[in-house]
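In this section we walk through a basic example: taking a raw amino acid sequence and producing a predicted 3D structure, encoded as discrete structure tokens. The instruction is simple. Fold the sequence below.
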Amino acid sequence: MKKDNWQNRIRNHYEKPIILIPGKTYIRKSLHEAYGGQSQYGISTPRRYNSIFIFAMPGGKKHGYHDGWNQNKTLYSYTGEGQIGDMVFLKGNKAILNHIEDKKDLYLFEDEGGGRVRFIGQMVYQNYSIKDADSKGQKRKTIIFQLVPIETIAYTISEEDELLSKSEPGETLSLLRTEAFLAAKTKMSTRNRTAIMKNRNQKIKKYVLNRPNGKCEACNKEAPFLRRNGIPYLEAHHIHQVKDMIFEDPLLVAAVCPNCHKRAHYGKDAKEFNDGFVAKLI
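The resulting token sequence is shown next.
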């Protein structure tokens, strides 16, 4: 990846004009004034930020569609854009379909009326279906996107991290590296994306946690303590994703000590700090 690309991604990540908090209500006009993007559409793609804003209409049944959660609140159905004729994968619909490949964060809001929108959370596109709909007395094809919370993709359980931090007999660092880069290049299909992303996360994370031989890749100090399995404790830090949950490039993930990990996300000098040590990985 070219140097200016990852620096732009760090800048966009740490210099977002409004901090989005799940459950909080925002004035949509204010969001567009801060981020840019199309203010009249359900899908907004600000050019200055690696973000896509989705504005769902849970009460849209009268228009031939219904956005909302499934019964277990694990899957969110969102109807794509396009009010006349069959929906196609262009503009906003295409942006959702390719947001992982394009490295765009997907943020979901629900319309509350009166120009106010409630932030639901960061999502990941998983699948889609094509359904017949009746809009203003006309039959047409509609695209229904299935979105899942970004937490669904995460490997966050400490026991799993413990397994990933320990290489098995025959798993050399060279082999782990090869598997990580092959996983990173796996083509994302329109189906079974969650399984593909979880496998990719696992391969990349295992390589990264084994790469520095027990030393933090930010401060270069030994890990502060050992895991229960005797392996030095380090955490996988992704410079692009706030929650370190989607890994798409092994060179943009670092194994860091807990102190450096917190500093990389919440420190006053977070952007400069990331610039400094990530440059060594590229």
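Looking at the output, two observations stand out. The mean pLDDT is 83. Residues 14 and 41 are 26 Å apart (CA to CA). In the next section we compare this with other chains.
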